[in-house]
Design goal:
Layout lengths: L2 H18 L9 E5 L13 E6 L4 E6 L1 H4 L4 H17 L11 H18 L2
Parallel strand pairs: 1-3
Antiparallel strand pairs: 2-3
Helix pairs in contact: 1-3, 3-4
């Protein structure tokens, strides 16, 4: 991927982050964007990953830029909002073995689509 394409994707992601951080009540969080998803182990093949320390209101959202290039603006906006909803839900994530990430993914998807409908 060319540097110009990488920069264009980063600008597109940042545009959606800027659009949604305040409406989701996350303006007081420190949210950092990373484009090297390999730094987020355990999520091979994911387009986006969220790591958050809810106690300190700090989050890092990782995106795999190569996969982002094939997403439409509508799809990419949904992915960005989805990862921001993970920021909201991280506080309820149990560090025990019984925590089922599939439930969090379903809830994030539902909330994301609701926010996108309201935000139109």
């Amino acid at each position: 991927m060319s540097k110009a394409t990488q920069n264009a994707e980063i600008r597109r992601i940042k545009k959606f982050l800027a659009k949604w951080i305040k409406p989701l009540g996350l303006e007081h969080w420190r949210i950092h964007l990373e484009t090297d998803i390999e730094d987020a182990p355990g999520y091979e093949g994911a387009l986006g990953v969220c790591r958050a320390s809810w106690q300190y209101q700090h989050a890092t959202i990782f995106f795999q830029l190569a996969r982002c290039t094939v997403e439409s603006d509508t799809e990419m906006e949904e992915h960005v909002v989805h990862e921001l909803v993970h920021v909201l839900l991280k506080e309820i994530q149990c560090p025990c073995d019984a925590y089922d990430m599939d439930h969090e993914e379903r809830v994030c998807t539902h909330i994301t689509r609701a926010f996108l409908r309201v935000g139109k």
